[in-house]
Every structure is written in C-alpha cells, then in structure tokens.
Design brief:
This protein has 2 domains: 157 residues; 115 residues, Sandwich (Immunoglobulin-like). Helices cover 21% and strands 35% of the residues. It contains 6 helices and 16 strands. The strands form 3 sheets. A 7-stranded mixed β-sheet has the order 4-3-6-7-1-2-5. Strands 8, 9, 10, 12 and 14 form a 5-stranded antiparallel β-sheet that branches. The longest helix has 18 residues. The termini are close together.
C-alpha cells in the first residue's frame, strides 16, 4: 500500500474533487451505485415503457447518457448531440423537456458542431412529477441553436435513451420522494475522530424521524463507499426499529476507513467517496433503498479524518 503523507494527501484530496467536478471520467451508469439499484424491491422496480414515436430533426440527433461524474454531481445527465447534416451549427443552450420532470430554464452552453461531430452537454433536470400514470415520454432536448448563417433557432430534438436513462432517473427521483414522505433519515454528530479499540474512527449518529407513516420502521442495513465504511456502533442492536407509536429513533454509528481507503489510487480515482446507502423496512416488508445526505461540513470533517487515519498508512 502506498504511503500518503499529510501534505500530499491534501493535494490528492483536492485533485479528487477537481476530477469529480471536471466531468472528465467516462462510462455510463455502471458506477459504484450499480448494486444499489438491484437492491430495490421488485414492487418498486422501474416500469419502462416504449418511447412514443416523435418526428426527427434534420441534421441533428440527441441521446441521453449518464456518466459516473453525473451520478457524483447529481441532478444531471449528458445530452450527446451529433451533427448528422452537412452544415455546422452551434448549440447555445439546452433543457430537458419531458412530462416526467418540471422544465428548467435553458442552461447556457457553448459548443460548435461541424458535420459528423458528437459532443456531450451536461443537462440538468427539474423535480420529478410522480403522480399516477406520469410518463417521461415523449422526451425532447430543447436546444437553442445558431446556424452557420447566424440565424437563431429554438428546436425540440427527440431524446433517445437506449439505456432507459431518463426512465431510470425518474424512477430513482420518485422513489426518493416517496421514501422521504414516510421517514426522514439524517446523518449527525460532531464528527470528531476517536480512538475506539485501538482504531481511529469517527463516531456519528443516524436519526430517523417519522413523517406521514404509521408503520414500524426499521433501519436494517448500512453501507459505505470505497473510501469510508459506515456501520452500526458496537453494542447496537441490528436492525434498529422505531415502533409505530414512536416518532424518532437515534442510531449510533461509526465511520472508519475501508481496507483500501488510504490507497493513493483509490483516493484519487473515486467519484463518490460520500455515497452512504441505507436500507429501511416498513412493518418488515421489502427493504427500501436510500442515501444519506452528507453535508459540506461533514465532508470536510471526513477529509480531515483521512489525514489522521492515513498518516501512517
């Protein structure tokens, strides 16, 4: 295992953050979260419908893809636009236009497409519409285009999604909305490193607060990332349950480095160091997947903990 001294580690951490924000990584939705989607119950699995037939736009195609960096940043995917015509054009702004999402204002872009060129443009999506019967199709990329002769146009390009990316995003967003409506799950504590059993760890707590739900709620499983492990504190019962007549449950947990967490390559390459999944059940039913929200202050505290935990690695 490669040693990561303090100053070098700080530089490496900064590099890792820059890599995440730069969007330079490639690859589609097969990320560190890949196993999480499979863990959803069959009842909540996405039901993908056949896209509705929409007219093509001469000289331009648009395909939805999701990169690892999109998952890490959140709230966006890539619109892969290709110039299939014989004249160049420039894209000045894009916006997702789908009945499954609230429409966001145009997001300014600056990309010139010569004939045959393909360029990915980050495209944000608004809050999902999750009512009964809501579909994502027909989905379009609304595009502000400047033609070679200077003409400005606003066109709607049918958005292809060969991996059902837009459907999957809609399903994930609506699942999160339904879960949050039943129970709020938050990460707290002072995040001060402590020596427990000869190991430097970060004690914390997870609080379950009942929302619009009258069932027994159990926190049955915690997972960490490739850098940090999250587990129930020693001596805590698992699963931790909140009976139907109680409104809050506080669960002591511990955050520690994984076996590979101090490795320089892992720290430099990971896109989602703070992806902390959890699973809850309602009245002992199918496990429901959620992700803990790690605040900016908590992230800073964990990066400081990395320096301490990895000082002698």
């Amino acid at each position: 295992m490669r040693r990561v001294p303090g100053l070098a580690l700080r530089r490496l951490v900064v590099l890792a953050v820059v890599v995440v924000l730069s969007g330079c990584a490639s690859g589609t939705d097969n990320t560190e979260t890949a196993g999480s989607t499979a863990a959803l119950s069959a009842e909540s699995a996405p039901s993908v419908t056949a896209p509705l037939a929409t007219p093509t736009v001469p000289g331009m195609t648009a395909v939805a893809v999701r990169l690892r960096t999109d998952v890490a940043v959140g709230g966006q995917f890539q619109t892969r636009i290709t110039n299939t015509g014989s004249e160049p054009f420039s894209v000045l702004a894009v916006s997702l236009d789908s009945p499954g999402f609230e429409r966001l204002p145009f997001d300014p872009q600056s990309a010139t497409y010569n004939p045959g060129a393909t360029i990915d443009l980050p495209t944000g999506y608004g809050p999902a519409r999750c009512g009964a019967g809501v579909q994502v199709d027909p989905a379009f990329t609304a595009v502000q285009v400047q033609r070679a002769d200077g003409r400005m146009e606003e066109i709607a390009v049918p958005l292809e999604a060969p991996d059902d990316i837009v459907d999957r995003i809609h399903h994930e967003e609506c699942h999160a909305v339904r879960l949050a409506a039943a129970v709020d799950v938050s990460l707290g504590g002072d995040f001060d490193p402590a020596d427990i059993g000869g190991n430097i760890v970060v004690p914390a707590m997870i609080t379950l607060s009942r929302e619009d739900n009258t069932q027994d709620i159990s926190l049955i499983e915690l997972r960490g990332s490739v850098v940090f492990d999250v587990s129930f504190a020693e001596g805590s019962d698992s699963p931790m349950s909140m009976p139907a007549d109680e409104d809050e449950l506080v669960v002591p947990v511990v955050v520690r480095m994984t076996g590979r967490g101090c490795d320089a390559h892992v720290l430099g390459e990971t896109k989602q160091p703070f992806l902390f999944p959890y699973f809850v059940t309602f009245d002992g039913g199918e496990p429901q997947y959620g992700v803990l929200d790690v605040s900016a202050d908590q992230r800073d505290a964990l990066w400081s903990y990395v320096e301490v935990a990895c000082a002698d690695a």
